[in-house]
Design goal:
The protein is of the alpha/beta class. The protein has three domains: about 130 residues, Up-down Bundle (Ferritin); about 280 residues, Vaccinia Virus protein VP39 (Rossmann fold, 3-Layer(aba) Sandwich); about 40 residues. It has a ten-stranded mixed sheet. Helix 2 packs parallel to helix 11, helix 4 packs across helix 6 and helix 8 crosses helix 9. The protein is globular, with a radius of gyration of 28 Å.
Length: about 475
């Protein structure tokens, strides 16, 4: 059995030798299209076995099995010329003819880049990738864990960190929202597919028959704007058993379509998402939304979009920054709309460092159901584990850190700790009276009194005198013990 962890480390080390690959994001981008082709080739073996009339959408000479599977195959300048001048142009223009697999391959390569400059090093990586058998259940399972680590590495890859949400968070949200077979699950800002992967894992437990499996295959939908996470997400979904993942590469983004153009057929049962926050959308995007909720703040626009996309009875779990809770103006109108059109039943407030090092912004998990107004909202503050000052890259948030809120979820009680509410229920009237300020059950802050300069000097002199007196007393005690007069 191949040591897959060692294989991936070797591949990354080989890439570091290549002058064309600079940094983690490019290494992962390079690896992503190569892994996709290998996984697609191994998947084609299965498809041709189960589908009597299966035909590959990729012309024979451009299939992985034709140009990459032979360890003694092309290398050096010949390989580099083939990849850059024949393989990539062919796959970027691949005819789709209504074939969803052909469309998937072409979409993957539309904006993909071969960063590598050395054909010899490229050959070495191809040979290492060939050591992985994606038709082996064991290899596939182990590689799934390694792939998760690859995605996690994006946290330290500059802006690419926005594509990764800690899996402890995605798994908790998927479990609480509880998607069911036959329901459609959407992430309109899917990144590398963390939420969708957790939804697939949750739904797999309900699969008992081939018909159930087909329901699962048809239930997962993702939208992504950027090429790198789009490739990673599509590959992630194939690794999770989806034959033709319904991941859509929206070049203009999820917010570019006018809100009033969505129809009944576009609506879904479940939304799981962590939309981008802390940024502003390009000029004109806000005009796709009604005048009373227009803003350039991305997270706010996504919240409005989500309300539109949910069916009546549809459920959402989403990540939102603190600013959305207490902000005023347009934010107030959006929150009023949320509490009027949806039942915002739960807000879980997360520790500040959950998304470190990508962002220190305080974040919250909102859970709501479309179709009936809010009557009451429960707030729960999830504290850092005892003895931990902050989550970080070496000590990230873990699934067990959600144990306390899971226990509380189905047996809700108001909780107070050290004079501050940790869990509390607020009626709609109370929230309206606060002008929809949802900044409740937050993290206590110690207020520091700012004194006038004269008071500070006086306070310092008093402390200094007290310290000198203590020193004199200690010296006197020492002298007495030593018998010194």
């Amino acid at each position: 059995m191949t040591n897959l962890s060692s294989t991936i480390k070797t591949i990354q080390n080989i890439m570091r030798k290549d002058s064309g690959v600079d940094g983690d994001a490019q290494r992962i981008g390079q690896l992503s299209w190569m892994l996709f082709l290998k996984i697609f080739a191994d998947s084609e073996e299965n498809w041709s076995f189960y589908e009597d009339d299966y035909e590959s959408p990729i012309p024979k000479e451009y299939r992985w099995t034709s140009w990459a599977s032979d360890d003694e195959g092309m290398t050096g300048d010949e390989l580099l010329d083939f990849v850059n001048n024949r393989l990539f142009p062919t796959l970027k223009r691949l005819p789709t003819d209504g074939n969803p697999r052909a469309y998937m391959v072409r979409s993957i390569f539309e904006d993909a880049i071969n960063y590598m400059k050395s054909g010899q090093l490229l050959r070495q990586i191809i040979n290492k990738i060939n050591e992985i058998d994606f038709n082996s259940t064991e290899d596939r399972h182990i590689f799934g864990d390694i792939y998760e680590q690859i995605l996690k590495d994006l946290q330290s890859a500059g802006n690419a960190g926005e594509f990764y949400t800690p899996r402890a968070v995605t798994a908790f949200m998927a479990e609480m929202i509880n998607p069911q077979l036959g329901e459609t699950v959407l992430d309109p800002a899917c990144g590398t597919g963390g939420f969708l992967a957790c939804a697939v894992n949750h739904l797999h437990q309900q699969v008992k028959t081939p018909n159930d499996e087909q329901k699962l295959q048809n239930s997962i939908i993702g939208w992504e704007k950027k090429q790198l996470p789009y490739i990673l997400c599509t590959t992630n979904m194939i690794l999770h058993g989806l034959d033709v993942p319904n991941i859509q590469h929206l070049l203009a983004g999820s917010l570019a379509k006018p809100l009033n153009s969505y129809e009944k057929k576009d609506k879904v049962d479940v939304i799981l998402t962590n939309p981008p926050f802390g940024g502003m959308e390009e000029d004109g995007i806000e005009n796709n939304f009604p005048a009373d909720v227009r803003t350039k703040e991305t997270a706010d626009l996504f919240l409005v979009l989500i309300m539109k996309l949910l069916k009546d009875g549809g459920r959402c779990a989403m990540v939102l920054p603190d600013g959305a809770l207490f902000g005023e103006g347009v934010k107030t109108r959006i929150k009023e709309k949320l509490l009027t059109e949806c039942n915002l039943h739960t807000i879980v407030r997360l520790p500040k460092s959950v998304f470190a090092p990508y962002t220190p912004i305080n974040t919250n998990l909102l859970f709501f159901t479309k179709g009936s107004p809010t009557q009451e909202t429960w707030f729960y503050r999830l504290d850092l584990p005892e003895g931990i000052k902050a989550f970080n890259k070496t000590n990230p948030m873990k699934a067990e850190n959600f144990a306390e809120v899971k226990e509380w979820w189905n047996n809700r009680q108001e909780i107070e700790e050290n004079g501050f509410p940790k869990s509390k229920k607020y009626s709609l009237k109370e929230l309206q009276d606060r002008n929809y300020n949802l900044d409740l059950c937050g993290y206590p802050t110690i207020e520091e009194e700012i004194l006038e300069p004269k008071q500070l000097i006086s306070q310092y002199q008093a402390k200094r005198a007290e310290l000198n007196e203590n020193i004199d007393n200690i010296l006197a005690d020492i002298n007495k013990l030593l018998g010194i007069a």
